[in-house]
Amino acid sequence: VDSERTDTGTLFVQETAEETSVRLEIGENVIFPGHTVTASVITAEEFRNLARFHKKFTFFALDYAIIKKYAELHGRRPGLFIRTPGRQHRVSVKKWLNETVSPAQRPYIHYLSDAEGLLWVEGLGAADRAAVTETTEQVLLLNVSHENDTKCIQG
Question: Which of 104, 110, 114, 121 has the maximum number of C-beta atoms within 10 A of its C-beta?
Fold first, then answer.
């Protein structure tokens, strides 16, 4: 059980999702019941066409070639930091979560890491090193669906 105080003095007490992880597979991946991450790989050209014609793009995109060894889909872990594209410094994932994500959603945020560290955080986006660039040849697309919840975290 986790508890947290807000600025207003309210105390939230909630069950924490059990820490689990899986090696990311192409297709459907589940680490939290009712929450599915679907992974697919497409060419950079297919990605540009998809982004051009679908302005409300709900997939998360990463440069597939930068993944070292394999990608691991997991829940929250202590001490996570990420540097997102366009930022000079790393961002504390805990600080970002506390500022932008409701306590009820925090245990179910998805994270993707490889041998070199964090690649992507649901709602925050891809790490700078995993961002799709002009030299990207293959794109890893991640689509997160939440059962009984039409309001997914974007990023």
Answer: 121
